[in-house]
Design brief:
15 helices; single chain; 2-methylcitrate dehydratase PrpD; two-stranded antiparallel ribbon; 4 strands; mainly alpha; 2% strand; globular
Length: 343
């Protein structure tokens, strides 16, 4: 007999979905230190360099070839290439490229590569909507913070059970970031998180294959589409993330962790949820926990800055993203395509 019963969220869990939604939707622009802002820019440009560095890899070509058979609208850039595709496909392909060589940033406590899902979704959306570099940076900080808070709550057990945590938290970070960039209110941001929570991405069995790099790309696409669906009125449970934490606790209990239920409040406190509604600034950026391959990105960016037909506005944007008033039509993707010949 088929079973079709709902599994409710843990009634004792704090309202994580609502807390995160309010945090993302209402946090003041640049409501953090200059050091956090600098790290966010370093993270973004590290991601950018990694994506361009793998632009001609066979995995990127294969993914792009498949997507072009769907005849996507030319809405956004594929980094390091001349092709343009729809926003969701650009998020997917740029996310794949950014993780192909595994040089992208790593949150050391959870081994999440957070920029891949978040930045890939944001650049596609910001480019299409002609949004500013400052708005993109604000959303990047908050989106990566969401992914790492959730990761802190579920690592290492979630990872040890076979999930690739970059993808299975990245869709939440990407949805939060895109909701922020779209200026969604608290309720619709919660819906974006809820829609994304039903689409976790990636298992560790794929490590060593092209599909490992698919995980941040697919998470970026999920996050972007979840936020767009929420913007247009699509709904989800308001306690979607609480259900994820219940599943984690029950899994630990089944494995013989008899005190798993009592550990949940401590896990959530350590992950930064308890005080998030009291105006706490993005916490993990200040712990010097994000490792980047800065030299790799710098080599690519130096090539881009030397591009002969680089406009002064885009040159300033590559030096300081907050100085870029909008991400124009072909934006940074155009710049990076021009620079690939010397990368």
């Amino acid at each position: 007999m088929a079973r079709n019963t709902a599994v409710a969220a843990d009634s004792n869990a704090p309202p994580v979905t609502a807390l995160l939604a309010r945090f993302v939707a209402t946090h003041p622009s640049r409501g953090w230190s200059d050091a956090v802002d600098r790290e966010a820019q370093r993270t973004f440009f590290n991601w950018l360099g990694c994506a361009v560095g793998a632009a001609r890899h066979e995995s990127v070509g294969a993914a792009l070839g498949a997507l072009q058979m769907l005849q996507p609208a030319p809405q956004a850039s594929v980094l390091g290439r001349s092709e343009r595709v729809d926003m969701a496909s650009a998020a997917l392909v740029n996310g794949i490229a950014s993780h192909t060589f595994d040089f992208d940033d790593t949150h050391l406590k959870t081994i999440i590569h957070p920029a891949g899902p978040v930045a890939s979704a944001l650049l596609a959306l910001a480019e299409h909507q002609h949004l500013s570099g400052g708005a993109l940076l604000d959303a990047l900080v908050l989106g990566i913070d969401v992914a790492c808070r959730v990761g802190n709550a579920v690592y290492p057990d979630h990872y040890d059970r076979g999930w690739h945590i970059t993808g299975s938290t990245g869709m939440l970070g990407a949805s939060a970031a895109c909701a922020r960039l779209l200026a969604l209110d608290v309720d619709r941001t919660a819906m974006a998180l809820g829609v994304a929570a039903s689409q976790p991405v990636g298992v560790r069995e794929q490590f060593g294959s092209m599909t490992k790099a698919l995980h941040p790309g697919a998470a970026a696409r999920v996050g972007l589409t979840s936020a767009l669906m929420a913007k247009h009125g699509y709904t989800a449970s308001t306690r979607a993330l609480e259900a994820l934490f219940r599943t984690m606790v029950e899994g630990m209990a089944a494995a013989g962790w008899s005190d798993a239920g009592t550990r949940l409040p401590g896990w959530l406190h350590e992950a930064g949820f308890r005080d998030i509604d009291e105006g706490e600034r993005p916490f993990w950026w200040e712990d010097d926990d994000l490792a980047t391959q800065a030299r790799y990105a710098a080599d690519v960016l130096e090539s881009a800055l030397d591009a002969p037909d680089l406009t002064e506005e885009l040159r300033r944007g590559l030096e300081d993203l907050r100085r870029l008033p909008t991400l124009p039509g072909a934006g940074l993707g155009w710049v990076m395509h021009k620079s690939t010949a010397v990368c």
